[in-house]
Structures are given as structure tokens and as C-alpha cells.
Amino acid sequence: MMNRLHDNQSYAFASDNYSGVHPKIIQALTIANGGHQPAYGADVYTHALQQKIKQLFGEQAEAFPVFNGTGANVTALQALLPRWGAVICAESAHIHCDEGVAPEHLAGVKLLTVATDDGKLTPQLVARQAWGFGMEHRAQPAVVYISQTTELGTCYSVAEIRDLAEYCHKHNMQLYLDGARLANALVAENTDARTMITDTGVDMLNLGGTKNGMLQGECIISMRADTHAAMPYLRKINAQLGAKMRFISAQFLAWLEDDLWLDLAAGSNLMAKRLAASLTAIEQVSVTQKVQANAIFAILPANARARLHQQFHFYDWDESKGEVRWMTSFDTTPEQVDAFAAAIRQAIAEK
User: Fold this and answer.
1) Angstrom distance (rounded) from CA 16 to CA 98
2) Predicted confidence (pLDDT) at residue 46 exceeds the cutoff of 90
3) Pairing, β 140-147 against β 174-179
4) Distance CA 256, CA 56 (A)
5) Model confidence at 335: pLDDT above 80
6) Distance between CA 232 and CA 237 in Å, rounded?
7) Longest alpha-carbon distance in the chain
8) CA-CA distance, 312 to 327, in Å (whole number)?
9) Theoretical Cys-Cys bridge with 292: which of 155, 170, 296, 309, CB 3.0 to 4.6 Å?
């Protein structure tokens, strides 16, 4: 038996990727593990997942389970773009800041970025890069990329997504939504997947489970028939086709059953709000973005940051401003939040 290599009571506020796996997901993997099933998505679990995705997003939706978020984004963007196409995104977008050169190198696309204070795009901001149509000397704007939640922890409302989709379609572009934390946004906006995605006109999305209680796995969801056919081939050439796909699909089935995914997101959102409320009483800490989901961006003194880093893992977001990012997870407890808030107060109080 393997020895335990870490303290299983440890916790951090660096990323929801630091968290473990929900027990119902472990149970689902155990159930799926018995016997043999056809490989490469021909199994009964992946078939059942297809039906569940159609139930949530509509009959036109087609699900393509993949291994990870970067692979999902690369594969989806390839499906949506002509070879000469470009993607408009925020300067803070995940595909621009956190995926190396994967979009450029693997997907072969050009990213056209737009500055935004809160991580969100609007039709007016998109218009800054949506020009040069028909000009052979410029990469052609073809896709607008947004994420739920954004890299700054903010959420798009249903109305904001609808406005973006209408603008995109009016200009012969498509709207792609990176839903790595879609569950957190649905809870924050008090709505459902069909209302936020299908009814607004999103053309393709990635449904992310890794940050919200799953072991591994993302799911590209194609919302248009004209992109369905390309997806199996693109998933294969991007090394995202799982031989034992049943173990990804089984996780999603358990995660989506009885709205577990939303319950887990609601818990992490609530813990972020609890931490944010504690920060209001600390004069030397200023929160820089709206706390809508499970992320908090704040500025605090450099010496306090250094002391806090000795006890907890978290990311310095913008060192020039002294800004940090703290994130809660599905398994973050009120006691952990309160202890972290106390540690922040202590770090600031020490001279």
C-alpha cells in the first residue's frame, strides 16, 4: 500500500484545483470500474452522458469528453475557426495568460486582445478588434472567447451573454464560452444552463468539472450541427480522445445527478462571500473585484503578504499593486475561512 505523502487535513486558498475529489465521484469511478466496456466513447456511460447533456442544454447539444481545459479550448477553437481566423478575448483571458502558447501553437490561431477592468467583454469592447473583415492582410475575427467565471472572478449575466452572441452573429462571428467554473456562475446568477447557454445563443462551450469536485475531465459541448462532424477528428488529433472514456463520463454523470455540481459550487461561492465579509473589517485590505463566485482579489501590504505566504499557499496576482488572489473550493469549510481571516489580521498586525 502506498504511504500517505501529505497531511490530509491541509488546505489552501491558491486554487480550486488544489482540492480533492468529492466522495460521490470516487464512488462513481468504483461503480464504472467493474467489467469491460467498449473503448473510445462507445461505452454506456458516455452514451448516458450524451442524453444528460441534451436534457440540460437541448437536443441540438453534442458532448465530447476530453482530459483537460487547455485541450478543450484548443480543440473547440479549431472547430469554430477557419484557418485564417482570429479569436477576440480579454487581455486577462485564460487562453491568453495561462495556456502558454497552446492556442497559437496547437490551434494555430491569432489572439486579438482587449483591455477590460473586470475581465468581461461587451459588444463595444469587442468592436475594438472586430474590424478588417475581407482584408487579406489581417487575421479575420471569427470567434469571441469569454469565460464563466472570468479570470478576475466576475460573472457574465444572461443578458450580457445574449448581447455578445447577438453582436457576434450579426458580424458572422461565433461565441465560445470557457465554462471551467460554469457551475459557480450559474449559482451566482441564479439561473440554469439552458437559460444561460442555449437561450442566449452560445455556439460552443467547455463544461469544466476538475475545479469543482471531479478528479479529471472536461466536456466540450457543441451547440451547432455544423460543428458536430469535425469534433471527433479534432479531439483525436489534439490527443484528447480517451481510450477509457467511461471514467470521465461516469464522473460527469455523478456530478450532474441531483444537481451535485451546483450544490458544490454554491458551497465554494458561499465560503468566498464569508471570507470577503471578514475582510471588510480589516482596514489595510482592499478588495479589487466584485466577489460574485469563489474568487477574491485583494491588495494588502507586502510584509503581510510575505508572512501569510509562510502559512498558506495562494497566488500573488499583480505584484506591482500588491494584489493577490484567494480562492475557495467545494470542500472549504467555515472554520478554515475563519482561521484564514484571523491569519490575515495577524499578518497585518505584526510589525
Assistant:
1) 15
2) yes
3) parallel
4) 9
5) yes
6) 9
7) 63
8) 12
9) 155
The cell numbers describing 230, all together, are 469535425
Q: Are 196 and 185 in contact (CB under 8 A)?
A: yes
**For residue 245, which of 269, 268, 265, 220 has the smallest C-alpha distance?**
220
C-alpha cell at 255: 456530478
User: Which three cell numbers, joined as nine digits, stand for 195?
Assistant: 437559460
Which grid cell sits at 33?
Answer: 470500474
Strand order in the sheet with 204-208: 62-66, 218-222, 204-208, 174-179, 140-147, 85-90, 110-114
Q: Taking a C-beta distance cutoff of 8 angstroms, is the pair 69, 210 a contact?
A: yes
Q: Which three cell numbers stand for residue 279?
A: 475582510
- SS3 for the chain is CCCCCCCCCCCCCCCHHHCCCCHHHHHHHHHHCCCCCCCCCCCHHHHHHHHHHHHHHCCCCEEEEECCHHHHHHHHHHHHCCCCEEEEEECCCHHHHCCCCHHHHCCCCEEEEECCCCCCCCHHHHCCCCCCCCCCCCCEEEEEEEECCCCCCCCCCHHHHHHHHHHHHHCCCEEEEEECCHHHHHHHHCCCHHHHHHCCCCCEEEEECHHHCCCCCEEEEECCHHHHCCHHHHHHHCCCCCCCCHHHHHHHHHHHHHHHHHHHHHHHHHHHHHHHHHHCCCCCCEECCCCCCCEEEEECCHHHHHHHHCCCCCEEEECCCCEEEEECCCCCCHHHHHHHHHHHHHHHHCC
The dihedral formed by the CA atoms of 136, 171, 74 and 181, expressed in degrees to the nearest 10: 150
When pLDDT is cut at 50, 70 and 90, the band that residue 58 belongs to is: very high
Q: Which amino acid is it at 79? A: A
Q: Tell me the pTM.
A: 0.97
Q: How far apart are CA 135 and CA 84, in angstroms?
A: 11
Contact between 249 and 45 under an 8 Å Cβ cutoff? The reply is yes
> Residue 157 corresponds to which cell in the numbers above?
449575466
Neighbours of 136 (CB within 10 A): 7
C-alpha 27: how far from chain center: 24
Number of CB atoms found within 10 A of residue 27's CB: 12
